[in-house]
């Protein structure tokens, strides 16, 4: 079995994969679309991509690519605590003020905004495709630069942790989607805490109170919604679809009832997946 992830080595996605799975064949991809495409084209059995961070919110590239480009079943969700560290080469002996550049993914930079603002005011910010790529750049450079990343990245690229836990908020977690056409192959080495179903809903145009009616279809059935998010349909200004997470598995009574009720209102309803959620301790 082969598992793809947003790479290179040292990313939080790789950390999630190592924590959730055993020693399967693991392959890194430079971008989220490349990883998703590999699952769609049967080059790998399972793909793991970031979906949402507790501080910075949704990874929009993941959502938009799965909705507009490639529809793949969600087999599971992995939730991982995120700890961001300031990484430098082992021969760096300077002070924080000596660091000329800070490299990392845009989400990691944003998660450490206050620390950077207070301690690295003279450093230039350089965005990379992942935290692992940032660590790789620092490891290959002789300049006084730093990366923001995790302990795995420090280990993989021979860096030292100059400052630990520089993220602005302690309760920092990221959700990762496990995508696969072969759900029977997904064996995560932990017990799941709950099951979730994700629904895609497109509202009828120019109908007053449509969103209220959508939410009411779930509410009177006492179905708990953990998230509702709107994204542009890319068909013109003001056209949106909604992604709703329901904290229960798909059944043959409540969900068909919701679907039928909403379709009668003119909505389009698609079940994107029903899957277990795993909270990891790293």
From TrEMBL:
Keyword presence, Lyase: yes
Keywords for the protein's UniProt record, in alphabetical order: Amino-acid biosynthesis, Aromatic amino acid biosynthesis, Lyase, Phenylalanine biosynthesis
Broadest EC class assigned to this enzyme: lyase
Catalytic activity: prephenate + H(+) = 3-phenylpyruvate + CO2 + H2O
GO cellular component, one term: cytoplasm
PROSITE patterns, per database record: ACT, PREPHENATE_DEHYDR_1, PREPHENATE_DEHYDR_2, PREPHENATE_DEHYDR_3
Keyword Transport: no
EC number: 4.2.1.51
Pfam families given in the database record: ACT, PDT
Origin: domain of life: Bacteria
GO BP terms in the entry: L-phenylalanine biosynthetic process
Domain Prephenate dehydratase, first and last residues per copy: 2-181
Pathway: Amino-acid biosynthesis; L-phenylalanine biosynthesis; phenylpyruvate from prephenate: step 1/1
GO molecular function: prephenate dehydratase activity
Domain ACT: 199-276
Annotated positions for site Essential for prephenate dehydratase activity: 174
NCBIfam families (UniProt xref): PRK11898.1
PANTHER family: PREPHENATE DEHYDRATASE P PROTEIN (PTHR21022), PREPHENATE DEHYDRATASE-RELATED (PTHR21022:SF19)
Protein name: Prephenate dehydratase
Naturally occurring in which organism (per UniProt): Virgibacillus profundi
Lineage of origin: Bacteria, Bacillati, Bacillota, Bacilli, Bacillales
Gene name of this polypeptide: pheA
């Amino acid at each position: 079995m082969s598992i793809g992830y947003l790479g290179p080595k040292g990313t939080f996605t790789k950390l999630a994969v190592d924590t959730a799975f055993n020693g399967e064949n693991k392959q890194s991809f430079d971008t989220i679309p490349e990883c998703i495409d590999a699952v769609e084209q049967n080059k790998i059995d399972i793909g793991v991509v970031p979906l949402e961070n507790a501080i910075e919110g949704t990874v929009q590239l993941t959502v938009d690519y799965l909705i507009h480009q490639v529809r793949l079943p969600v087999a599971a969700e992995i939730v991982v605590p995120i700890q961001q560290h300031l990484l430098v080469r082992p021969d760096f002996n300077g002070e924080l003020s000596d660091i000329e550049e800070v490299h990392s993914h845009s989400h990691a930079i944003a998660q450490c905004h206050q620390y950077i603002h207070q301690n690295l005011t003279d450093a230039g910010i350089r965005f990379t495709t992942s935290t692992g790529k940032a660590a790789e750049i620092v490891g290959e450079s002789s300049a006084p630069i730093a990366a923001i990343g995790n302990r795995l990245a420090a280990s993989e690229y021979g860096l030292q942790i100059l400052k630990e836990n520089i993220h602005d908020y302690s309760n920092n977690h990221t959700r990762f989607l496990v995508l696969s056409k072969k759900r029977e192959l997904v064996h995560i080495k932990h017990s799941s805490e709950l099951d979730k179903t994700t629904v895609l809903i497109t509202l009828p145009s120019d109908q007053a109170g449509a969103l209220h009616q959508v939410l009411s279809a779930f509410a009177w059935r006492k179905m708990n919604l953990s998230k509702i998010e709107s994204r542009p349909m890319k068909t013109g200004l003001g056209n949106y679809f909604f992604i709703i997470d329901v904290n229960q598995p798909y059944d043959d009574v409540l969900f068909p009832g919701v679907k039928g009720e909403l379709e009668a209102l003119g909505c389009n309803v698609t079940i994107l997946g029903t899957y277990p959620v795993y909270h990891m301790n790293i």
